[in-house]
Structure formats: structure tokens, C-alpha cells
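Support request, please re-run this one:
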Amino acid sequence: MAEAERASIVSAARRASLWCRLGLSAALFLAVSPLRAADATLEYDVKATFLYKFAPFVDWPPGSFDQPGAPFVLCIVGADPFAAPIESAVAGQRIGDRAVVLRHLSVADGRSGCHLMFLAGSPAQSVAQALDAVRGSPTLTVTDSAAGTPPGVVQFVVVGGRINFNIDTVAAAQNHLTISSKLLALAHAVTQGDRR
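Re-run finished. Output below.
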């Protein structure tokens, strides 16, 4: 292979990597408008979009999917704060070759087949109880930062009027998940110790 051709391939790979990083940043941050305290609808619209965008940057252990083309199952557990926005956010979305399937559950269970769970809590099961129920299963748990809500692997936070997120790498490891360094770099904070 000629040196000029090799340099061209390396340059193209670098450009593709840069566009991938910029695409993730844009998808997660640039489209997010500052939130007013009373704008809960916009807040949950943005969070609904974030949910499935986390998945390409997480590695699930072997056996997490029944077969190569099995769907990616996103579950909302407890009192659903999203309503219609989550339905429209995931409609027709794919993660690689996997269709995104949305399920609503009243309680969390490690055998539910959910790959990602947003844990909202309810009278039937608190967020803390839900986290305990799925700890050790290959589930990306996502929680809100409301007062007293324990953090999942990912926890939404509002910083400077914008939706952001924290990541707990120890909680990820307990659930046998590996978080991409690209996603860790975009987090507001990364915790490397168990806070539970």
C-alpha cells in the first residue's frame, strides 16, 4: 500500500472518530435548551431522548440478549414521569441492529429482561428497593436526582439549567456493565466508589 494511500486512510479514520464524538456531544448536549424551574414537560422530553442514547456507549455481558437480532428492552419502572414523550422518543429507534422496545413495569425485577431501566419509584416499590431488586443483573439503571433518591448507574442531574448526568462506575461493574470512556467524559461527575 502506498504511503499516500495509508495516510489518507488514517486521516479518514480520524475524521470519522471526531464526527462520532461530535455527534454524541451534539445529541446529548447541544440541542438541550436551558430549563426553567417550572418547565417539567421540557425536562422529561429531554430525559426521554437521553435514555436510549446511553445504550450505544455501554457494553452488556455475553448472554444479555437471547439472540443476535434480539431487541433492546428499555423499561420505565413505577410512576411514569414521561407519558407520551418516551413513546415518541423511542418509536422506530434502533441501537445497532436491535430495535428499541419500550415496556412499562410496576416493579423492577432482575429477571424482567430489561437492558435499561428508568426507576421512578411508586408506592409498590421505592427506587431504593428497585435498585436492590436488579443489583447484579446486567441492567443499566437510571434514576433522577430528586431529594433522597439513591443513584443508579446513571443519575440525571440539572446543572446550570441543563440536563446532565452522573455515572457510578462501581454500580456499573456490580451489574456487569462497561461504560465507554466517551460517555464517561461527557458525564457531569463520575463516582468510582459505592455510595449505597
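The chain has two domains: 1-31, 35-191. Residues 1-31 form one domain.
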